[in-house]
Specification:
The termini are far apart. The model is unreliable at 1-38 and 358-387 (pLDDT under 50). This protein is mainly beta. It has two domains: 5-318, Immunoglobulin-like (Sandwich), CATH 2.60.40.420; 325-392, no CATH class. The protein is built from six helices and 23 strands. Bound molecules: copper (II) ion (CU).
Length: 452
């Protein structure tokens, strides 16, 4: 039933070599730098292959002029971030499915093999195709039973950013991860030539701490928000050169939420949706793009400002991990007496709360609000042992940063713009010059400017 990631990659590598994907497959296990792709050569139409950070692109072979793809729907053990694994459903060993990439005018044939214990079907979101290929279970086809392989075949009549997802028992199957991105490039070079073409699927999950199975019954209190299936600090950065023209394609198949995705440091234009290109007079500058569920938005900008720039959903609860919301408001309350009292009774729980709230000692947010460098209220003689936290869980916020830890989680990653770019590997942190770095004001400065 289960194919290991390594077996899948080995199988895919042979077919992928001509696509230049072998190098990407080879270091796919190195999740720190999964992006490092083979040198990108433009296709004849002038476009670059896309980059699906923390994911991959689906290999294909050409048979009698038809591009043939194979999606295998199966259970996948998926890591959202270090320390949090979900027993999900995915494609070809991955969550979400690999990005399908083709060119307008291509005839494509996609085989979908069902290795789940449940029937499924596959819908090609936004694509103009014959009705019988649309993949809506019960409406346009009968479901694909366990063990069966269905063939979908059609000609790509448009270009743009689309998606694919289960359209059978959607609520359950999409909550388990059955979705992926589908990019169709224009046959002729149109629009702008970009230097980077990133693809992101936005989605949301319900993963109770200590549980391994996403909960499809959740309707509103989702607690893991992901970019390409990863929650910060599990997300890889986008790495680009100063002055590069960058395209980011965002698709949202979250169950119940829209995501206003915000980029720091630059402004961008929304150039396309899954309905087509937006004519230039209809494009205006933005720093946040709302991506409604069931849609795609494509943005473009010139990365003209060097640094490490946050890229994230602006819903503040969507940049948290595994947060419980049924808690009273303790902001401003000194919780130390409460903590100490609880410590005597449930030391392991308290210790796990400690760890779940922040990874680093000395910089812990408390139930009474965020502290910096203050540490948690003293627990006295802690009886808790290391490892007392739930087996499968991650801190609500926090990834290592150059100035302490970054108080974000979930749908958050970093755009790294560098003057000199040698590869798309993570270049480390941006070094701001002292005069461009915010820091404590000096007495002289305060006096000079009359700040009391
Ligand atoms: Cu959001």
């Amino acid at each position: 039933m289960t194919t290991t990631r390594r077996e899948m990659l080995a199988g895919a590598a042979a077919g992928a070599a001509f696509l230049g994907l072998a190098a990407r497959a080879a270091d796919a296990d190195d999740k720190k730098h999964p992006a490092a792709p083979a040198p990108k050569t433009r296709h004849p139409g002038g476009h670059l292959p896309t980059t699906t950070l923390d994911g991959s692109t689906l290999p294909y072979r050409v048979v009698d002029g038809v591009k043939v793809f194979h999606l295998i729907v199966e259970p996948v053990r998926h890591e959202f971030a270090k320390g949090l694994v979900g027993h999900c459903w995915g494609f070809n060993g991955e969550v979400h499915g690999p990005t399908i990439e083709a060119i307008e005018g291509d005839r494509i044939r996609i085989y979908v093999t069902n290795r789940l214990d449940a029937p499924t079907s596959m819908h090609w979101h936004g694509l103009f195709l014959p009705n019988g290929m649309d993949g809506v279970g019960g409406l346009s086809q009968r479901p694909i039973d366990p063990g069966e392989t269905f063939r979908y075949e059609y000609t790509l009549k448009q270009h743009g950013t689309f998606m694919y997802h289960s359209h059978h028992d959607e609520m359950t199957q999409m909550a388990m991860g059955l979705m992926g991105m589908f990019v169709v490039h224009p046959r002729e070079a149109t629009g702008t030539k970009v230097d980077h073409d990133f693809v992101y699927m936005l989605s949301e999950w319900s993963m109770d701490p200590g549980m391994w199975r996403p909960n499809p019954n959740e309707m509103s209190d989702f607690n893991i928000l992901t970019l390409n299936g990863k929650a910060f600090p599990g997300t890889s950065p986008m790495v680009v050169g100063l002055g590069d023209r960058v395209r980011i394609r965002l698709g949202n198949l979250s169950a119940m939420d829209h995501h206003p995705v915000h980029l720091h440091g630059v402004a961008f234009k929304v150039v396309a949706t899954d309905g087509g290109n937006i004519p230039e007079p209809g494009q205006w500058p933005e720093t946040t793009v709302l991506v409604p569920t069931g849609s795609t938005r494509t943005i473009e900008f010139i990365a003209d400002n060097p640094g490490d720039w946050a890229f994230h959903c602006h819903m503040t609860h969507h940049v948290m991990n595994q947060m419980g919301h049924n808690v009273p408001n303790l902001l401003g309350v000194d919780p130390s007496a409460f903590d100490t009292a609880l410590m005597d009774h449930v030391p392991e729980f308290m210790e796990s709360m400690d760890e779940a709230q922040a990874p680093e000692a000395g910089q812990k947010p408390t139930m009474g609000g965020m502290k910096h460098g203050g540490g948690h209220a003293g627990h006295g003689a802690s009886a808790a042992k290391p490892g007392a936290r739930p087996k499968n869980g991650i801190p609500m916020i926090g990834g290592d940063g150059p100035h302490g830890y970054i108080t974000m989680g979930g749908m958050f990653t970093i755009l790294k713009v560098r003057e000199h770019l040698e590869s798309t590997k993570d270049p480390g942190w941006y070094a701001n010059t002292p005069e461009t770095q915010a820091k404590p004001a000096t007495d002289d400065e305060l006096k000079r400017d009359g700040i009391g």
